[in-house]
Design goal:
9 helices; 259 residues; eight-stranded parallel beta barrel; 15% strand; alpha/beta; TIM Barrel; 8 strands
């Protein structure tokens, strides 16, 4: 049985942030993820999650200016100190919220630096994050992102994600495999999952094109979800899509998995 999580930074936006864990629980989720939980004290998130009866399984390490279209932190030579501060901030939150994983966003190449140097910086920063989070009992993942939405992103495919993880050389690192991004960049989702499941720490999904809920695009989710169920994969599968309607009206895919 797949264990689904609801991304509270994209779903249930109809209610305030701290009310979203309860909204997710009412909709049938027992796990959630949050992109950046830093806008509220960790203790308030902890209370909201506990009262709703849901588990937090993932959040992101602070990524600097990345979400505003910048380069981020993780792959920028000369910004290692800022990245370490971001990891330390995430670790403090993780000690309160106890997620399964935190996600390090690789970002885009820094102006004036070659791509290989940025990848070396990213690998070293991933190794640092993996070590700090291991001390907190939390795994680290990093995600390949499509270059249609984010031109120039440092890791843009499954193999490039594996390559930088191997370069980092830490056992506490895995892939965050996003079906939406990899459908755009590679397709062949089922074969990729079969090949790499043991190195995947977290899966996310949205349909393509549009990044909306399953059934709005080209991905055959019934087959992909059935394959995930067949695999020995023991992580969560996160709904990280932009609802085309009210969130509750986009959950037919979840109801279908319960039958």
């Amino acid at each position: 049985m797949i264990r689904f999580s609801a991304n509270l930074s994209m779903l249930f936006l109809e209610v305030p942030e701290l009310e979203r864990p309860a909204a997710a629980r009412r909709a049938g989720f027992d796990a959630v993820e949050i992109q950046f939980p830093y806008g509220h004290p960790a203790e308030r998130w902890h209370d909201a999650l506990r009262e709703a009866g849901v588990e937090l399984v993932l959040f992101n390490v602070p990524a600097g200016d990345l979400m505003g279209g910048g380069q981020g932190l993780a792959g920028v030579p000369g910004r290692e100190a800022a990245f370490r501060d971001a990891v330390d901030e995430a670790a403090a939150v993780a000690r309160v919220l106890r997620p399964r994983h935190v996600n390090v966003l690789a970002g885009c190449p820094a102006a004036g630096h070659g791509r290989e140097r940025c990848l070396d910086t990213l690998a070293a920063n991933l190794a640092y994050a993996a070590e700090v989070m291991a001390d907190a009992g939390v795994g680290v993942v990093t995600e390949a992102v499509n270059t249609v939405d984010r031109p120039g992103y440092l890791i843009d495919g499954t193999q490039s994600a594996l390559d930088v993880i191997d370069r980092a050389g830490h056992a506490n690192l895995r892939i965050q495999y996003d079906l939406y991004h990899m459908q755009i960049m590679e397709g062949d989702l089922i074969r990729s999952l079969r090949t790499h499941w043991a190195r995947i720490g977290h899966i996310q999904f949205a349909d393509n094109p549009g990044r909306h809920e399953p059934g709005t695009g080209e991905i055959h989710f019934a087959n992909v979800f059935a394959e995930i169920e067949r695999l020995p994969y023991d992580g969560f599968v996160g709904a990280e899509y932009v609802p085309s309607r009210r969130t509750e009206e986009t959950l037919a895919w979840l109801e279908g998995r319960r039958r």
